[in-house]
Each structure stands twice: as C-alpha cells, then as structure tokens.
Amino acid sequence: MTLLKLIPVIALVGMSSAAAASDICSAAEERMRAAVSTYKKEGSAAFMREVLKNGPLEQDKRALGQDQALNQIEQFFGPIQAYSTLSKKPLGSRTCYLVGIIEYDNGPAFAVATFYRGTKGVGATAMFFRTEPEAVLPKQLLVE
User: Fold this and answer.
1) CATH (residue range 3-142)
2) Three-state SS at 107
3) Which of residues 21 and 107 earns the better pLDDT score?
4) Torsions phi, psi of 132, nearest 5?
5) What is the CA radius of gyration of the chain?
C-alpha cells in the first residue's frame, strides 16, 4: 500500500478510538445519573450498588460500604436534591475519569469516580466523596 492510501486508514483508526473514548464517558455519565436517581428513591446503599454494577468491585463489601460516607454527608447537609457532572475525561478507550457534584439541601459533595468498560459493561473501579471543592477540583478552577 502506498503512503497516500494509508493516511485515510490511519485517520479512521484514530477517529474510531476517539469515538470509543467519548462513548465510555457518555456511558459513565449515564451510569452515574442512573445511580443518583436510584439514590433519591432508595438511599445511599442502592446508589453504590448501581455505580459499581458491571465492574470488578460489584460485590466488594468494602467498596459497597462507601455508602457510609454519603450517610455522614446527608446527616450534615440534608437530603439529596440534584446532581451535575463537572468534568469527564476519557483515559484511553475504555476508561473515564468523572467528577460530579451532588447537591443536598444545605451543601454540596463532590464525587470522583473512575469508570471502566469491562466484559460485563461499564462500572466504577474507584470512587470517593469530598465536601471540600479544593480536595477535588483544580486550583485554576477555584481561584482566578
């Protein structure tokens, strides 16, 4: 094959991997929104089950136990009201790093999760919560 014939093939391969990376973040955001909807109806334990669904930590008791962090946040901030995605960044074609804000009656919590597309689908492989934005967000975003 000549170089001129290879260029379109290389471009298509690059575009398909970029599309796959974008797809993983869309799927991760969908999973997070579904989890928040479940959280509003069924509580924090159901939220963690939904976020971890399809991932390698789906049955891990320690990962599922992170619902306790949300329970503590709720004790201070009240019931959950809303969720927004602040940032989603594809890391490769199967991994997405997602930062969201969970808004309660009296304050926000920031959720940070790594989602991965495995053999069973998209599920979180890591997740944590913080109430301080400076613990999660880049300083450039907080201070100008």
Assistant:
1) 3.10.450.630
2) strand
3) 107
4) -100, 120
5) 18
